[in-house]
Amino acid sequence: SGINAEYVALLDLVKYMGWNSVALISSMDSYGINGLSTFQKYSNERKIKIVANEMIPLSNDIENIDVSNQLLNLKRSEARIFIMNVHSGYAKAVLRTAYAVGLVGPDYGWIVTDGTIKDAANLMNSTTNQFDQFTQGMIGFMSSVCCSSKRKEFLENWHTDTDGVSSNGSWAISKWGTETKSLQLQSRASLTYDSVWVIAHALDQVIYRENLKIVPPEVDYWSDPVRNYPNGTVIKNFMLQLQKFEGLTGQIQFDNKGGPVKKVYDLVNFRRKDVVKVGDWSPHSGLLMEENKTIVWNGQSEEIPTSAVRSLKGTRLRLGITQEKPFIMIDTNCTALDPSNKDCYSGLCIELVELLADLLEFDYDYVLSEDTKFGSPEANGTWNGLIKMLLEGKIDVGAVNFAMNKAREGAIDFTMPFINTGLVMTTKIKESKSDPFFWTKP
After folding, report:
1. CA-CA distance, 305 to 19, in Å (whole number)?
2. What is d(CA 21, CA 12) in angstroms, rounded to the nearest whole number?
């Protein structure tokens, strides 16, 4: 479907950028929740970790909505890459608060969905006539409206039917890099125009070609929506059968689930005063970046932000350990006097901890395994050892040479392996004498 295509495009973008983990921000409505579930499904298949997930509640006062708790939770997650899937209007409040708590800058990447991009005109600062600092650098996908032969015909007809009114208005701009308002109105207007014609074609087929009786729904369109319309299924089925219909957004055709078959998305980048196309995506070709365009991230940086944590300054971690020579060796005489003395511990894993602590600027304490075990499943389904302590929140990291297996991977997360050991079998070599006349024997 259409929503699936957009999120497959987003995951292709995540992979292209080399990101292994992301945080999600979704509005608490059907738009946000459906997008969230779709992204979670596909991210699991592609081994992309979701480190945090925050929901933005609906509000009648969007401009003054308080999302500080959600953004502080995201900050504590140490996420660097954020995918925001919120309904039109909520993006500004989220981004403003993110900027206030320090989650906007060259070290962070913000990716948005079409709900935010279509609302780009409202993100423009009316005083400076440019995007605010917290909006600049965002990237995201929007439906492509660039390549239809019907556009020129439509604009000419509009010019004729309006008795000479120019078709160079903001909704009709057909090239990128001119004016943000133009870009957004063009996409929205084109999609709306095509939607009307798709329904019109279906009704024409049902009423005039098939001579089927259609009863209009008894509803006040300005109040409650239609909850149950018996003829709706008939109309929908004819819409799904639509073939070779070209609209302003290109060739229109649906799959059996109602999703567009030939969907193309433009990857766009929010600059200071405009939204610029930097690539495109389709189900057949995947993500293609434009050779002469560079993504400009927040702070006018052209360096791709990383999803990896660069600093844990101010963080104190509880590192679970147990003796396993030569990886971890514990001087019990030393720990008997002062177990917090880091000189009591040595080995390869200890040296790795010291190196990482210097690089990431964190402090730490060693916590011994309560039963000296690494961790294995019990008969009742619980775990013992360091894995049990991890699951119970008694330690933050198991700083030992864990062997990775399927059971453990289902319970805890692992880093990339820092050592590989190959298991081999040895057998005695059987001696044999060569026989130069072996070929004469049957």
Report:
1. 9
2. 13
Contact 214, 235 (CB under 8 A): yes
Q: What angle do CA 89, 90, 95 make, to 5 degrees?
A: 120
pTM of whole model > 0.70?
no
Q: Over range 387-415, report the average pLDDT.
A: 90
Bond preceding residue 339 cis, omega within 30 of 0: no
Q: Is the dihedral of CA 337, 338, 343, 344 positive or negative?
A: positive
The closest of 59, 75, 56 to 67, measured between CA atoms, is: 56
Detail the DSSP E strand segments found in 216-263: 245-247, 250-252
Stretch (H or E) spanning 120: helix 120-123
SS3 for 252? strand
Distance CA 218, CA 226 (A): 8
* Rounded distance between C-alpha atoms, residue 145 and residue 160, angstroms: 22
pLDDT in tens, 168-207: 443 333 444 444 443 344 566 777 888 898 889 888 888 8
- Which class for 110: exposed (0-12), middle (13-18), buried (19 or more C-beta within 10 A)? buried
Q: What gap in Å lies between CA 381 and CA 383, rounded to an integer?
A: 7
Question: In the numeric block, which tokens belong to residue 271?
Answer: 């600059």
Residues 6+ apart with CB under 8 A from 72: 101
Q: Can you read off the two tokens belonging to residue 62? A: 């969007």
φ/ψ (deg, to 5) at 150:
-75, -15
